[in-house]
Amino acid sequence: MTTWVNPPGLPANPAFSQAVRIPANADLVFVGGQNGIDAGGSLAGPGLAEQTVAALANLDACLRAAGASLSDVVAWSVLLTSGTSPREGFAAFTKAWPAATRPPTITVAIVSGLAIPGALIEIAATAAVG
After folding, report:
1. Is 74 exposed, middle or buried (0-12, 13-18, 19+ CB in 10 A)?
2. Per residue in 29-64, pLDDT tens?
3. pTM for this predicted structure
4. If you ran DSSP here, which 8-state letter would residue 16 be given?
5. What domains does the chain contain, in order, with CATH numbers?
């Protein structure tokens, strides 16, 4: 049984867990960083909100193709380019995130740039199924 861990003495936040323990019988799905691009490889828009929604849609497509879903995600890694507002991205992220889902762990890093020119965000995920 997957266990969400928030030890005493560490800040509690409804948006994320401090740790997640995965049982040995779970299948793990690792999704590499997804940018906010459309099927043709073009940016979904110039802003962080549009790119966040598209990156999550791309990530969701990868998860579904591997037999998982967004609700199976136990860890996020988010890269934001310098100068973007994390709040704008978080607002878009929470609209796309399933409301009943237990919050996974999250790592957010600010970087000087991403591989796709104009990309403002890249999201990777680890999901546990079963």
Report:
1. buried
2. 999 999 999 999 999 999 999 999 999 999 999 999
3. 0.89
4. B
5. 25-129 (3.30.1330.40)
